[in-house]
Amino acid sequence: MFVDIWILSAILVGCVSAFMVFLRRSQYLKKKPKKDSLDDLENEELNPDREVRKDFMANVSHELRTPVAIIKGFAETLDDTYDELSGKKRREFIGKIRKNSDRLCSLVEDLLHLAELESPSHTLRPEPSSLSVVVRTVADRLGEGLDLNTQGIRLELAEERKSMSFDPLMVECVVENLLSNALRYARDSSEIIVRTFFDEELKWVRCEVQDDGCGISEKDLPHLFERFYRVDKGRSRNNGGTGLGLSIVKHIVELHGGEVSVQSELDEGTTFSFSLPCEC
Length: 280
Known about the structure:
It contains eight helices and seven strands; from the N terminus they run ααααβαββαββααββ. It is about 55% helix and about 15% strand. By secondary structure, it is an alpha+beta fold.
């Protein structure tokens, strides 16, 4: 049937890519210095690399299992009952297959990006850049898909008297992740605010992304930048989140020598921010 090759190709690409992530991650952990004592290696508390690898693989397997199972289920139904299904039902099933294929691809892309960032051989490509230009580029791109009657993006950007040195593609990824996250969880009729601040004395630049969404409980705040951590797992998956965006943000910012933070109150919204040294 015409959808079979496309479906199986999506699953195959996802599985192969996931295996590549496992392989890269395992190679990275194996290169790290080992404990001298055999007893230490057998003690999981004194050998955190083993636990990190085990948790990582368990989380990835769990995240891949759901979209693959959904794709497989609808593909089998189409294959078994194709002639009996109405055209509307076929399009509905194909739409669900496509949605979960997109989710699978997004997850694999984020996994590969994270593996690259954690690789010892990864290096930044800093160049004279403008944070305001990066923010405007991302805001314009994401703003094209918004219904301006219900959502908007407001920029409050500080004047830049000189360019800074950072990796523009990486910082663009940071801003896009934070802004996409805000748009995904903000309320209807929302205005997302992106602000920048410069401290010439301390030689730091700060960017904030503020939404007026449902907010995040205090107990969840310390875990938001962890891989695969979700406050509302069901809602996050339905909205297309992979659970890796904030972890990627944290890695990129820290590679620049910067810091990430979050402030939130339930029913009051959330503000994510990152700071970078003006000379990276």
